[in-house]
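Working notes for the structural subgroup meeting. M.R. asked for a predicted model of this chain before we commit to crystallization trials. I am recording the input and output together here so anyone reviewing the notebook later can reproduce the run.

Input as submitted:
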Amino acid sequence: MNIHEYQAKEILKTFGVKIQNGFVAENPDQAEECAQKLPKENSNIVVLKAQIHAGGRGKGIIKETGSNGVVISKGVGEVKEKSSKILGGTLVTHQTGEEGKVVNKILIAEDVYYPGSDECKEFYLGILLDRTKGMNVIMASKEGGVEIEKVAEESPEKIIKEWIDPNIGLQQYQVRKIAFSLGLEGNALKEMIKFINSLYKAYDSI
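Returned structure, recorded in token form:
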């Protein structure tokens, strides 16, 4: 399935997966309008994310302007200028090759905020088919926000894997095992359990 991030998030939302609020823009004026529609009660930070069919956008570079493919705007006032450095430009990442891909759409999303927490942690969580075993496998790691391929190559022990028997499906002890392995507790643990269940439901249904 070759879809953009914003399209994937809309699909996940229908299965109850918790996602950031966000809107898609095709020009800087639209980007500013989208930013104004985001909830502001928790944070004024706005995240601008180039939409192309390739990973590594945060570290990728727009040829024409030198901007990254994912940038942070400290308030609505910066959105128009920063989005203008991304939209219409050619984004080069480790997956696009030197020719890059033109950015025609940009996702304007809210900042990630957890009430009652002074810090925010990133995790990696993915589901894929392990063809060698004929089973779906959930992969998770505390090393979120980095290239998971690099983690797998250099520190494979940091990746948690849980294979799902197709005859019985995902079991709740497996979900709890993954959540506990990420070092979560309290409300964060409960939210991760909900997240994994919803994400697997989406994966298994599509």
